[in-house]
Design goal:
Blueprint: E1 4-9, H1 26-41, E2 47-52, E3 62-68, E4 71-79, H2 81-97, H3 110-113, E5 116-120
Parallel strand pairs: 1-2
Antiparallel strand pairs: 1-3, 3-4, 4-5
């Protein structure tokens, strides 16, 4: 079975107006926290955390995409590193357990209900 991947924008920051001159940016902080917790909670062959230079949603704070080749992709925006890590891992558990990758909005961890931006279907989904 293909890995489930968390794509984390490492250049994201809560507000482009408040970007620090020197990193770390919020996206890098979130990436570090996810790497640490994912390695504790999931087998290495099940979940991968991958840094992405930019997910093109700069006005949307920290952005994370969750993907698997056999499931829809979820895009989460406006995530805060201090608060989002645990919620993202809770979502990953639901996503992995779902054979088709569909997670109903009301099943999302509360913090992610307002952060889910899109569910992008697989090309063959009808």
């Amino acid at each position: 079975m293909p890995k489930h991947t968390l794509f984390v924008c490492k250049s994201c920051h809560r507000s482009s107006e408040e970007r620090p001159e020197n990193p770390p940016f919020d996206g890098t902080l979130l990436l570090d926290q996810l790497n640490t917790l994912c390695s504790e909670k999931f087998p290495a062959d099940e979940v991968e955390v991958q840094a992405i230079g930019c997910l093109w949603a700069c006005s949307q704070g920290c952005v994370v995409a969750v993907s698997n080749p056999d499931k829809p992709t979820y895009l989460f925006v406006n995530l805060l590193p201090e608060e989002s890590t645990v919620a993202l891992l809770e979502f990953m558990q639901l996503y992995i357990k779902s054979r088709k990758g569909s997670v109903a909005w009301n099943q999302l961890p509360g913090l992610l209900q307002s952060a889910v931006f899109a569910q992008i279907p697989q090309p063959n989904d009808t």
